[in-house]
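Justification of computing resources. Each target in the renewal requires a structure prediction run like the one illustrated here; the chain below, 208 residues long, is used simply to show the kind of job we budget for.
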Amino acid sequence: MWGKQSRATKWYPAIVIVSVVVLCLGSAWLFSRVSSGIQQPSNSLEPLSTPDAAPKSPTATQTVAPSPSPVPKPRSTAPASNNQALAKPDLAAISARQGALRVSNPTDYPIRVALLPKVIKAASTTGETANQSAYEPSAHWDFDPQEGGSKGLIVSLPDRALKIKPGDILVAFAQDGSRRYWGPYVVGATPQPMWNSKTEEWQLVLEP
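Resulting structure tokens:
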């Protein structure tokens, strides 16, 4: 029973080998079909429609030109010569209003009146300003209370003639320690002193 080999047993290895070969060939054919299907591009897809990239005609769009910005007009400036002319003093008016100084002290204070005369220079040929900040030596006068009355007294100097003119400075202050003062007055610019055209003199009346 165990010593003989049957016919079916003899053909079994051959059948197994043939089956393996057939299986290998079938697998190879199936793999080749699948790979060819993957690598072959699909021609059935339609190309995507591209947008119309043609430029629009110039008449289709409206171009708005920027409005021009307003150009500022240059400011007109007065010439330098006019400014210099305004700075120059009117020498004719100053000379016409030069005169003596009359002072009245109707107060109850002993008062000293001080004068600081201003020097007025004529215009130079180089066009420089004629009004210079220079003053002559100062002078002063002392008045007792109520001295001068309503008419006032004309003051003078022993060493030079005295002519009061516009631009001169006057100031008065009490000498009793009360620290009262009057002014300063600029002749021709402040209400005091007043110009009297009839007598051609400046009148300073100190208010009580």
